[in-house]
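Final report, closing paragraph on structural work. Over the funding period we assembled a curated collection of sequence-structure pairs, and we close with a single example.
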Amino acid sequence: MIRVLLVDDQPLIRSGFRALLDLEDDIEVVAEAADGQEGLALVKEQLPDVALIDIQMPVMDGIEATRRIAADPALACVHVVILTNYGMDEYVLDALRAGAAGFLVKDIVPEDLLHGVRVAARGDALLAPAITRRLMDRYLTQPPPTRADRGLEELTGRERQAVALAAQGLSNDEIAGRLVISPSTAKTHINRAMAKLNARDRAQLVVLAYESGLVTPRNS
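Its predicted structure, as stored:
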């Protein structure tokens, strides 16, 4: 059973998401919160598998709540998915750096919401295609990085290829298809790259890949 916490200051959003999630046999909404501070307290109390957290909220915003969750070793099992709008692109990098596993837009279709919750619960990165595209476009306007992050030189050629494909939003199965390897081998490459780059999760690996210069929008 996937245990989900909803954190959003809009009751209508929370009730709508809850109605969809509660219909699923493998998903249970364990609690709701109206701001980040309340949400953080409930995360510590409930230890959900997935916390769906809005970015803009009173008292404590979603980015700060995510940062505090990611910084607490006792909450390592909690995967934060940020709820956002298409016009909120400026917050994407801040939330990923804070430790978010990915994003879902609030006008998402029900099937994609359910898929997103299940993907996040597995520990995979979750970036809506539109947000991934804008994230990549944003890097086009930035100067190239001046240094590579420590550990980058330790990546094997296959690991670099796998990271480059992960940065495009591909799943392990899709990476396996591109590289003509098994999904388990693709997962191993990604996990080893995360360990070498000290990435908390797959989403942070994508950010590090761009910021280090290992991956750029032009070669993705």
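The mean pLDDT is 83. The chain has ten helices and five strands. We thank the funder for supporting this effort.
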